[in-house]
Amino acid sequence: MSNPVRIGDVEIGGRVWIAPMTGVSDLPFRRAASRLGAPYVATEMVACSAFAAGRPDVVRRAAVGEGLPRMVVQLVGRTPEDMAAGARLAAAAGADVIDLNFGCPAREVTAGALAGSALMREPELLFRLIEAVVDAVDTPVTIKMRLGWDDASRNAPAIAAGAEARGVRAITVHGRTRCQFYKGHADWTAVAEVKAEVEVPVIVNGDIRDASDAARALEASGADAVMIGRGVYGRPWIAPWIEAGLSGGVFEEPDREARLEVVLQHLSETLDFYGDRTGLRIFRKHLAAYVEEAATPADPALRAEARRRLCRMETPREVEAGLRELWREELAA
Asked: Which residues are catalytic?
């Protein structure tokens, strides 16, 4: 039985959430993960200034779409005016939850735009951004951050307390500093210091790939839910699978034939959304992950060759035929 988590007046029907990921969490991916049982899948990070200006690629990132259990839009920016404008656009598009990104470690975001996790070095500006968004919309507002900029400035607990005081309704913490990027291991225990400072739900993020990881992360952090990032690559069914493991239930991962149908439907919806040329290019990241998670070829070198071969194909028909051929080999194994 799933344990729901409340974000203000919005109920999320489970404790395993899918993180917003640039280049991954587009509408076709969110539909695939939602269809397979994920209760929460956020959009890619949406730059508020470009969103407000109507730049097509940014508007496309924020595409909410129909048929999703929850519509969660993640925003990033540096000025209160841009963040408020972006929030109003997201709310008008139907967002159930608006998440603010204070955790992205990418250099083009932190050094180029002075946003994402760079804002953890400027708490007063970060709080003004929160206030601007909370004042602009009635939609519940959440934040996602890291432990701090570096080990000398682990200020996530103080930021969490300030965020809650300004109306934030849930807080996700990746258990690394910005300067760690993705090195080492996420420090789930440090997230417990954030949990101790606030009453709103806390979600722990970082290095969670299965139910065992999730259980240990929840125990170490005291968090209310887990958020899965890179562990979802090639496994859009991961949320109900982990949820079942946490709850003592049973969730059978899709068998080989069902996995092929997941991949082909995801491909088809990606092509419909972007068009064949752009869609095929964008889908290659997912394609590589699906092949990596397939049962065969068992030899890593052969698997890598299959991945390279499929990702070099230039038409949807070639890719579909190549996938069916790979799966025939898998079924025969």
From this structure: 104
